[in-house]
Design goal:
- The protein is an alpha/beta fold.
- The chain has one domain: Rossmann fold, CATH 3.40.50.10490.
- It is built from five helices and seven strands, in the order αββαβαββαββα.
- Strands 4-3-5-6-7 form a five-stranded parallel β-sheet.
- β3, α3 and β4 form a beta-alpha-beta unit.
- α2 packs across α5.
- The protein is globular.
- 42% of the residues are buried.
């Protein structure tokens, strides 16, 4: 694997376990699976994870922060998405997504966005259903056990682990700001992946 092409050094990815999947795999995720470990866990391809994070950042960078919504029902992702919001000003929903906020203009908390990012397609399915109704693209973090129907762009990763979600949102924030010209390509964020990680 060509180390210099990766967004972060390979050992950072490995330490965070971003590539460690589950014991289940769906046909949707076959393209992203590298191998099966002796303990039965599926392992995702690190090169593909890295490529997809980069592509997702380039895609998201076409939108202003107010036009993007990140939804995360999974508790391990609350701190990473809140830090992501703090750094990029992209709107986030950490916790239970109230159905209808993308579709019902009469709701007090109605939001008009142009793209939705979900941390896990299964617990965040209400948000995906709303996005489908209003025709906005969905970017989803998908583990080996996720279905990917109704998802426009998949970022394969361990979407359950604290460290994996921390490093993913740290990289995504860094790349988003770089692509928007708000962070120099040679500079890093003042925050580390640990700052994005739930303790």
């Amino acid at each position: 694997m060509a180390e210099e092409k990766l967004l972060v050094p390979i050992d950072q990815y490995l330490k965070a376990g971003i590539h460690i999947g589950t014991k289940f795999r769906t046909k949707y995720m076959d393209n992203f699976i590298y191998k099966t470990r002796p303990d039965g866990l599926y392992v995702l391809n690190l090169q593909k994870i890295d490529e997809r994070i980069d592509l997702a950042a380039k895609f998201l960078a076409k939108y202003a922060p107010k036009d993007i919504l990140v939804v995360c029902r999974r508790e391990n992702g609350w701190k990473p998405v809140r830090m992501f919001n703090k750094v990029t000003e992209i709107r986030v929903f950490a916790g239970r997504y109230p159905p209808g906020i993308l579709t019902n203009t009469n709701l007090e908390n109605f939001l008009e966005v142009k793209v939705l990012v979900v941390v896990d397609a299964w617990p965040d399915r209400n948000a995906i259903n709303d996005a489908m109704k209003v025709g906005i693209p969905v970017v989803a973090l998908c583990d080996t056990n996720n279905q990917t129907n109704n998802i426009d762009f998949v970022i394969p990763c361990n979407n359950k682990g604290k460290k994996a979600l921390g490093i993913l949102f740290h990289i995504l924030a860094t790349q988003y700001l770089r692509e928007r010209g708000l962070l120099d390509r040679n500079k890093e964020l003042d925050l580390t992946a640990e700052d994005f990680t739930e303790q």
